[in-house]
Inverse folding.
């Protein structure tokens, strides 16, 4: 059976989409070919890497990628993980299924580190829960 292709899309491709890519690849990499990108990519947040390590998923080798680098690819699913990415999502060939998941942005420079890490963990857990539901729905 051919793997279905998934692109997670966010603004910075620095936290939410990176965590989603890592979680789906870890939990169902045998079913999906997984990518992530951003409408305005920056860098993978060290706190995202840290909270993913807590659940034994290593995204330290991930890099932020520009969504335009993927616009000639065909995907089965394009999943936006923030409202800004949904509003700026380009058109992809092959009429992929567009899914909108809107998670809070854990990247807030004005937070103390403890509060910031709590937010990263909460968002990671919410993404993981949503991905598990997605996997289950695709196995039917």
């Amino acid at each position: 059976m051919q793997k279905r292709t998934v692109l997670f899309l966010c603004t910075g491709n620095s936290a939410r989409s990176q965590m989603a890519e890592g979680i789906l690849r870890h939990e169902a990499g045998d079913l999906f070919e997984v990518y992530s990108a951003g409408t305005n990519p920056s860098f993978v947040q060290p706190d995202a890497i840290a909270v993913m390590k807590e659940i034994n998923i290593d995204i330290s080798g991930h890099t932020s990628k520009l969504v335009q680098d993927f616009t000639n690819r065909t995907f089965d699913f394009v999943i936006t993980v923030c409202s800004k990415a949904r509003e700026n999502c380009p058109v992809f060939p092959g009429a992929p299924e567009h899914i909108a998941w809107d998670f809070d942005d854990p990247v807030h420079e004005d937070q103390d580190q403890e509060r910031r890490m709590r937010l990263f963990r909460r968002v990671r857990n919410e993404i993981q829960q949503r991905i598990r539901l997605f996997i289950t729905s695709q196995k039917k």
Notes: Residues 113-138 form the longest helix (26 residues).
